[in-house]
Amino acid sequence: MALKESLDKFKKQQEMCQTTLSSIKANSKPTPRVTPYNPVNAKSAAPAVKFSSDTERLQHINNIRKAPVGAQIKRVINLLLETRQAFTAEQINEACYVDVNANKAVFDSLRNNLKVYYDGKRFSYKSKYDVKDKSQLLKLIRKFAEGIAVIDLKDAYPSVMDDLQALKVAGEIWLLSNFDSQEDIAYPNDPRVPIRVDDDLKLLFRGIELPRDMIDIEKDLQKNGMKPATNTAKRRAQAQVHGISNKPKQKKKKHEISKRTKLTNSHLPELFKNLS
């Protein structure tokens, strides 16, 4: 009996404790959850983009896309020339803001441009001559015995001008200026066909005496089927009409220093060693 009474008493105590805990839980307020501050995450957060900066960028893109077709084509060609890479229409839009897909006139002009190669998907720069290095450049020049214009080689690849100068220094080619256009022409200097001039021929060439009068020189050129670059007879006739003398101007006599000359540099006696 004593055991049963102790067990009932223990159950009543458990019930009282459970009631007390339930009452405390009902009257208490929930504690808000606080996220701990992490300084690493705070530093790595990207700064917010200012509205003014984004507006300027959008205005810049809008101005490019509203520009004439020629200006947009030039912008794309400059991109292809500088990078020497192949770009899709989407990549061109990202790189220089020219929307090729949205502008049919730009797309057609770019596809048909002589400086652009289009493979159906990508655009790339197309130079007049497909050479990539100095050895290919030398082979190309040797194919043109009459010479090849340097202006047609300038855009072959980025270091082509340096290679031209290197070939010139090495004696592989000649770089000469055209008399008419004043542009440089590259001529091959093939070492397989060396030319040696005999001394007798050199003496014969140097022994030829040219006429002293320019009119006689022009007549000899015309006799040999060549057109003189000057017309001395016409120039002299015009000079006579305008009363211009053909006599060469006499040079002024240089005054020599004499004893009567007033010397202002007497502190430099070496200047007056030849004083008469």
TrEMBL record:
One of its GO terms (biological process) is transcription initiation at RNA polymerase II promoter. It is found in: Nucleus. One of its GO terms (molecular function) is TFIIH-class transcription factor complex binding. Residues 248-262 have a biased composition (Basic residues). Residues 57-132 form the TFIIE beta domain. It holds the Pfam family TFA2_Winged_2. InterPro entries: TFA2_Winged_2, TFIIE-bsu, TFIIE_bsu_DNA-bd. Keywords: DNA-binding, Nucleus, Transcription, Transcription regulation. Residues 230-263 are annotated as: Disordered. One of its GO terms (cellular component) is transcription factor TFIIE complex. Recruits TFIIH to the initiation complex and stimulates the RNA polymerase II C-terminal domain kinase and DNA-dependent ATPase activities of TFIIH. Both TFIIH and TFIIE are required for promoter clearance by RNA polymerase. PANTHER family: TRANSCRIPTION INITIATION FACTOR IIE SUBUNIT BETA, TRANSCRIPTION INITIATION FACTOR IIE, BETA SUBUNIT. This is TFIIE beta domain-containing protein. It comes from Heracleum sosnowskyi. The lineage of its organism: Eukaryota, Viridiplantae, Streptophyta, Embryophyta, Tracheophyta.
